């Protein structure tokens, strides 16, 4: 027997079954969109669509970071509180900078810079404690989740931190503005997704994430700096949270202890709906994007109909998450001999 | 042993395909009570697939299975086990987080009323482990056991059932010599009791000792089946591989007397594993490492490479001290390491073959994004060079047979174009044909001026390939044997600590 070049039939077959898995989330999204149109034709309106995408950008951007963390076998529960904390610090900083620089671009750029730096540091801490301290990511990030949440409450003194009105006017377009007809948050979302896709699928870093998530030992024996790569995934997650926060701040212009509550779960849900495996080793950026949009779409559709109460949003989301994962598992099972 | 016995389990015209690829063709097999039936074949011949079908883990694409003359259609291993058809897996299939005892009774826990009868289970478990002469604590978590102990738990799990047909898929690949003896004694007892045994192994010496009947598969087809008596090892090897295997061990390459030292380890100490070890490796040399399992050979080498912490010791590369803190540093020094645990540490099983191949030296395939075409090209070269045989288009490394996994792993470590190659148990679970190829590959390496460190528990391998053999015993490098000294007797003496340096101090300590 010599090495056989795989015959065309087998290649075609494996691709066909592979495609089904890749396209699963997209098909689900289409089905959901169809449902939306049937319920209310206004669903397809340009306004509604762009509104929905804009809203999904926060969770979407955070979820793209989470895709890396989860693919590499980690988990970050702190993203929601981290976002609140970053928003709080950013607002305090910009408010105080107003005195010095006035409510101008400098103030905002410094605020943005600080936000990114903070995200990077917060991620670094999560990463270092999990890898060097050899503590489960679940525990570490559960801890930092509580810490960031209480810090923002403390900074706001139990109340709400509000952004200076002058800054708010100038900062406003970052959320409400648009470029060539596309809302800026959507553009950022798209950009992050493209960069994330390339990073995960076409670079060494991404390949290492897959390897580490599949089997850390093998990664170590393949001369991969496992701790370093894992820490980097948390830092990337931090940057994504910072980016989402930068877009979020001009929307509300405030931060409080209630900001970003449960975002971590929504982000994780988006990642899982998209087909990334929760225990690591397999990640899909476009799936995550679709997952984030789906989650927002559910709320949107419920808004457009009276058939189901808006208060049942969580119920519908929950059911969809479970069904999505069930379908993925079922297709796994079928493709396995 | 009776002769007129009806087959207990018989399989007829078994076929199996994975997707469009057929891996078994019309296989017939009869298992008779009180008989040890050996199943032989190259890696990927379809042995594991066949026995998984017999024991209900896989279904046949077509064909029939009869037990006691009655047709059986197992839909899961549970149904087969209920019939007394039990299989010991090639890949350990234990629940890592559970204790040995919990694993042994997993899914058929003994109960008293509503509650688990822990006492009875512990009792039965102790009996089984005692019969296997292991010191495994029933309460120890499987995760914390050594591979050979895990294998013993797996065997205990099988024999605590009411077994009528016992199928063993390469049970000895990870066992120590003593454990192998214990297992053989157990097999003999089971045979007396009238159990039908199907035994898969690549070790022809074992087959010769215990088999009553043998069946040979090649490329999924039944090549030969009949009583063991009258069939020689050589004949079986030829049937398996389909060609004559001569010169199992190639002639050693001549070693220049002034060959420089390329690697030196001085006074290495690894907490809990190595007490004292120093050695040198010269250009073009094969340095064997002998000793029993657990003597500290792997710990020594892995500490040298920066894979485990060491508390003392110095490493010199080409005479210069080097700090190897991470395997990456070793790679930079052009040292390649082939781990003994290809499934747990060597290959990412759920990843494709190409990413596995390039994982160790991925930067060579980046500019700066990963160049899939270059990966593909490297993969095709590796298939050629290492004779990786893809009967089916495997999507993941898990689908490859053991021998092909080993070749892929070898190809992977060779992607760094090393000057020093350290191979740890390179032929574990590997068929004769592939072994032969690996030995010749080692020879090619030294020919080309590379140096090789060969850790092996197979005496004949060490003797056949090494220029010098370093022997370890209980964490101490007791001696380095050369020339005439390299023989089984001498190696055993050093390995058991009867001869060699450091032995007396150790005794006194
Ligand atoms: N799940 C699977 N999907 C696709 N192909 C498979 C799968 N399992 C096994 N194969 C293929 O079937 C063939 C037979 O494999 P099998 O594991 O039965 O070989 P084996 O004789 O047990 O080899 P070894 O001695 O290495 O254990 C191989 O070509 C293998 O690649
Ligand atoms: Mg097998």
Automatic annotation (TrEMBL), chain A:
It is a multi-pass membrane protein. The chain crosses the membrane at residues 23-44, 56-75, 104-125, 137-156, 176-200, 231-249, 285-302, 308-327. The keyword Transmembrane helix applies. InterPro entries: ABC_transp_permease. Pfam families: BPD_transp_2 (PF02653). The lineage of its organism: Bacteria, Pseudomonadati, Pseudomonadota, Gammaproteobacteria, Oceanospirillales. One of its GO terms (molecular function) is transmembrane transporter activity. GO terms for cellular component: plasma membrane. Belongs to the binding-protein-dependent transport system permease family. AraH/RbsC subfamily. This is Monosaccharide ABC transporter membrane protein, CUT2 family. It comes from the Bacteria. It is found in: Cell inner membrane. Keywords: Cell membrane, Membrane, Transmembrane, Transmembrane helix.
Automatic annotation (TrEMBL), chain B:
It is found in: Cell membrane. The keyword Metal-binding does not apply. It is a peripheral membrane protein. Pfam families: ABC_tran. Keywords: ATP-binding, Cell membrane, Membrane, Nucleotide-binding, Repeat, Sugar transport, Translocase, Transport. Residues 9-244, 256-499 form the ABC transporter domain. Gene3D superfamilies: P-loop containing nucleotide triphosphate hydrolases. GO terms for molecular function: ATP binding; ATP hydrolysis activity. SMART domains: AAA. One of its GO terms (cellular component) is plasma membrane. PANTHER family: CARBOHYDRATE TRANSPORT ATP-BINDING PROTEIN MG119-RELATED (PTHR43790), GALACTOFURANOSE TRANSPORTER ATP-BINDING PROTEIN YTFR (PTHR43790:SF9). This is Monosaccharide ABC transporter ATP-binding protein, CUT2 family. It comes from Franzmannia pantelleriensis.
């Amino acid at each position: 027997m010599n090495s056989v070049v795989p015959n065309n039939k087998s290649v075609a077959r494996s691709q066909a079954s592979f495609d089904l898995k890749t396209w699963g989330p997209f098909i689900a999204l289409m089905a959901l969109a169809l449902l939306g149109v049937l319920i209310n034709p206004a669903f397809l309106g340009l306004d509604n669509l762009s509104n929905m995408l804009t809203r999904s950008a926060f969770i979407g951007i955070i979820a793209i970071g989470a895709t890396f963390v989860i693919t590499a076998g980690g988990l970050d529960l702190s993203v929601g509180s981290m976002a609140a904390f970053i928003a709080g610090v950013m607002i305090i900083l910009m408010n105080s900078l107003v005195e010095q620089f006035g409510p101008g671009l400098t103030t905002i750029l410094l605020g943005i810079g600080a936000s990114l730096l903070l995200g990077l540091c917060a991620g670094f801490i999560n990463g270092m404690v999990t890898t060097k301290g050899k503590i489960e990511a679940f525990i570490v990030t559960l801890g930092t989740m509580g810490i960031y949440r209480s810090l923002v409450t403390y900074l706001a003194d139990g109340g709400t931190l509000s952004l200076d009105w002058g800054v708010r006017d100038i900062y406003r377009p970052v959320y409400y503005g648009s470029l060539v007809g596309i809302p800026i948050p959507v553009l950022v979302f798209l950009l992050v997704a493209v960069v994330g896709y390339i990073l995960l699928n076409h670079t060494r870093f991404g390949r290492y994430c897959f390897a580490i998530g599949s089997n850390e030992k093998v990664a170590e024996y393949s001369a991969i700096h496992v701790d370093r790569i894992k820490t980097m995934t948390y830092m990337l997650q931090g940057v994504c949270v910072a980016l989402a926060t930068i877009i979020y701040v001009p929307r509300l212009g405030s931060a409080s202890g209630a900001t970003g509550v449960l975002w971590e779960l929504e982000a994780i849900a988006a990642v899982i709906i998209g087909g990334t495996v929760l225990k690591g080793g397999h990640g899909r950026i476009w799936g995550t994007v679709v997952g984030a949009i789906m989650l927002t779409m559910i709320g949107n559709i419920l808004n457009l109909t009276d058939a189901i109460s808006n208060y049942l949003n969580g119920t519908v989301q929950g059911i969809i998450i479970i069904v999505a994962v069930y379908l993925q598992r079922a297709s796994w099972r079928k493709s396995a001999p | 042993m009776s002769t007129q016995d009806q087959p207990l389990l018989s399989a007829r015209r078994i076929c199996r395909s994975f997707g469009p690829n057929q891996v078994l063709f019309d296989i017939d097999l009869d298992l008779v009570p009180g008989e040890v039936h050996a199943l032989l074949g190259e890696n990927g011949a379809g042995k594991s697939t066949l026995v998984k079908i017999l024991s209900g883990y896989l279904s046949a694409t077509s064909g029939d299975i009869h037990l006691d003359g009655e047709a059986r259609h197992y839909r899961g291993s549970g149904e087969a086990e209920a019939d007394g058809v039990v299989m010991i897996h090639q890949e350990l299939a234990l629940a890592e987080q559970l204790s040995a005892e919990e694993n042994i009774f997993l899914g058929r826990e003994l109960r008293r009323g509503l509650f688990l009868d822990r006492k009875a289970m512990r009792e039965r478990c102790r009996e089984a482990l005692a019969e296997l002469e292991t010191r495994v604590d029933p309460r120890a978590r499987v995760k914390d056991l050594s591979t050979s102990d895990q294998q013993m738990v797996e065997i205990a799990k099988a024999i605590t059932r009411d077994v009528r047909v016992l199928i063993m898929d390469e049970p000895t690949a990870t066992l120590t010599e003593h454990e192998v003896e214990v297992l053989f004694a157990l097999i003999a007892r089971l045979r007396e009791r009238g159990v039908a045994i199907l035994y898969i192994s690549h070790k022809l010496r074992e087959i010769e000792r215990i088999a009553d009947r043998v069946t040979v598969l090649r490329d999924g087809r039944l090549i030969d089946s009949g009583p063991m008596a009258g069939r020689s090892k050589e004949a079986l090897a030829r049937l398996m591989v389909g060609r004559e295997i001569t010169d199992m061990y190639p002639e050693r390459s001549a070693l220049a007397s002034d060959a420089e030292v390329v690697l030196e380890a001085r006074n290495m100490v690894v907490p809990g594993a190595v007490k004292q070890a120093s050695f040198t490796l010269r250009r073009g040399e094969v340095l064997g490492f002998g000793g029993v399992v657990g003597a500290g050979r792997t710990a020594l080498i892995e500490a040298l490479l920066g894979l485990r912490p060491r508390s003392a010791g110095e490493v010199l590369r080409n005479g210069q001290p080097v700090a190897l803190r991470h395997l990456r540093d070793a790679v930079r020094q052009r040292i390649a390491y082939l781990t003994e645990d290809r499934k747990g540490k060597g290959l990412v099983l759920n990843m494709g073959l190409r990413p596995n191949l390039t994982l160790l030296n991925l930067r060579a395939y980046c500019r700066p994004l990963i160049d899939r075409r270059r990966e593909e090209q490297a993969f095709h070269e590796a298939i050629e060079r290492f004779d990786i045989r893809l009967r089916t288009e495997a999507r993941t490394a898990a689908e490859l047979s053991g021998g092909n996994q080993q070749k892929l792993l070898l190809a992977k470590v060779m992607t760094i174009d090393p000057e020093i190659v350290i191979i740890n148990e390179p032929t574990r679970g590997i068929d004769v044909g592939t072994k032969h190829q690996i030995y010749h590959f080692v020879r090619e390496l030294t020919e080309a001026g590379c140096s090789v460190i060969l850790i092996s528990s197979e005496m004949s391998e060490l003797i056949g390939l090494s220029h010098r053999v370093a022997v370890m015993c209980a964490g101490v490098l007791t001696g380095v044997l050369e020339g005439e000294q390299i023989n089984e007797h001498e190696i055993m003496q050093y390995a058991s600590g009867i001869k060699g340096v450091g032995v007396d101090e150790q005794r006194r300590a």
